[in-house]
Amino acid sequence: xxxxxTARTPFPAASLLGYPRIGRRRELKKAVEAYWxxxxxxAALDAAAKDIQLTIAxxxxxxxxxxAAAVPGTFSYYDQVLDATAHLGAVPARFGNLLNxxxxxxxxxxxxxxxxxxEQQPLEMTKWFDTxxxxxxxxxxxxxxxxxxxxxxxxxxxxxxxxxxxxxxxxVGPVTYLLLSKASDDAPAGFAPLSRLEDVxxxxxxxxxxxxxxxxxxxxxxxxxxxxxxxxxxAEIEAAVARAYEVLTATAARPQILVSTPxxxxxxxxxxxxxxxxxxLHIDAFKGAVPSAAALAALGDKTLVAGVVDGHNxxxxxxxxxxxxxxxxxxxxxxxxxxxxxxxxHVPHDVTEEGQLSDExxxxxxxxxxxxxxxxxxxxxxxxxxxxxxxxDEASAVIAARAAAxxxxxxxxxxxxxxxxxxxxxxxxxAVREAAQEEALHLPPxxxxxxxxxxxxxxxxSARARNNKGDLTNxxxxxxxKDEIKRVVELQEELGYDVLVHGEPERNDxxxxxxxNLEGFDVTVHGWVQSYGSRCTRPSILxxxxxxxxxxxxxxxxxxxxxxxxxxxxxxxxxVTILAWSFVRDDQPLxxxxxxxxxxxxxxxxxxxxAGIKVIQVDEPALRELLxxxxxxxxxxxxxxxxxxRLATAGAADATQIHTHLCYSExxxxxxxxxxxxxxxxxxxxxxxxxxxxxxLESHGFGRGVGPGVYDIHSPRVPGEAxxxxxxxTAVKHVPSxxxxxxxxxxxxxxxxxxxxxxxxxxxxxxKTVRAGLLQAAK
Length: 779
Description:
By secondary structure, the protein is an alpha/beta fold. Helices cover about 40% and strands about 10% of the residues. It contains 27 helices and 21 strands. It is globular and about 75 Å long.
């Protein structure tokens, strides 16, 4: 058995799998963006990061996580997968040599991979399992050189230790890292990144040895890819897991190894990990079923870390149910500890800061700090059930009161969803709609549009804040928003766009805006969570039955349409995305909640049509996000998710063109569902993946309008006219030109006006070039 400090540091009885890392007041966001803007240097950024790390570590100790290694060291400047890429030195050849003279990937190189350069697009971005977090996809090929190119994890551990706190360092595990990677552009056909496992493992070994030398008692290796049905054969993954942890546990001097498997049931790979010499295994016992006694017995003297507190949603834990699970686990497992099902990076910091919420609603909720209390309570239950009785009884009483609370169940809403028939989910045949829309809209080949939002300037944000404080009247605020809408419409007219948008200056967020105008929702003030990089969102709280009492978007769309003769898009957020990007109630099937939201949107669409809006976009960027991780569960999810969109849109007239939008997903997996939405036009992220989606569209025979994005808005770089022309030329090769639309990847809210105008101008120029080529070819 290798030296691993087993006797010195048993696994803590209570710990979180991870903690929000952006800062309680988004301090890291502000520091990172200041570094990007050049107003602080790398040293100042490092100082800000250390302050955030220490603040988090001290807060977790205040919450009672005081045992050695109870505090997770899950800090990241941008993304945990990018962190692993940095430590492995896996820089794609297209970026050249980003390693500095010491062979390290410094902070400049790190952010270059995330944000790209003028010449090179950044790493592709996609969803992290079934969350609204995004990660940067590694590019691995036969030529990728792996070397320990970062010492940051070690330095972060040493910094915390020097301040009296022993943290538990964390990195994405080797099998998950390679399974989440994509083959580099230069890789031969059929190349699988997992084939590079033997080359990756020595770098992990080096990291383990450095951490051991620094005094680390434990390291956490996340392997969530093991809870997903992969395209890679299960036997290959099993062999990779066995080999990886054979090598890592045989390291001469290493910390003890915790392998965590969040986001679902581990199932078949539990036995594989049990047969290795790892020291502790975390399972998601909240979402996944409790493993059999035989499977648990195979763990031997390993510590089983039971994730019985939901790290992914904000509802108060049913401590009685969790205690029963722990009793079942304790009967079969030798050593047992308590944790969260996932990192709590997916929830806000502290519900006690939300004083604007009612006492009743706050009592139903548990943010990250409250989850720490729940984990501690359950750990104390394991040691002495009587010590937790009062807390368990209180939780049970609150959960019962929530079920009976006013607004949670509304008979009028249930009567409407209960009366739905098949006819409520279907429109006319597409051929009929296409003809009616051509007559109504008169659009050119390759029509141009944008996805919806335009840059939200500091002036817009300031006006919204002043209006919220009462320093700006509603009339003054409304006029400022109208001025911005007029500016956006005039800009699109000048640029030559075909279907316009009003820019959405009045909207704080594409989900929160609707949550604030629908019954059954509440919103937070400080409930920020990280979406990707420095981008944060405040998910709304969907706690009750949903209904719409008045039009939401109609007045803004009607005003914008009055400014132009070109079609103006009405902009709505779809039911699945509203659910996915909210903290949605957990006390009924998601399909019922989705239909309630779908009916509210159906009413909004009817009012937009009555106001003269002929094009309406219902965004569903999160359609792929909620897809269950196990294939056996896909059909049921896709049925209710697609149905809720169709319910929202099926009441539209044939001449009303319904658009939808999807972004940052692996679309080939759900191409049938995308087709099933039956939207007249679907815009899809495609720029970072260099039009990868058009192959899926071609092989599927997708027959309606589609706009694969040609401008990546998640990076500050401006795509040149030639780049956009090349992307469009690729699209035309695989999708009939009569179906193609031209648009950015996503909304422009996060960008600045200078880069946006230049990019959109290049988009129009490229479209004209490709249109001319099509006309010439047709002669």
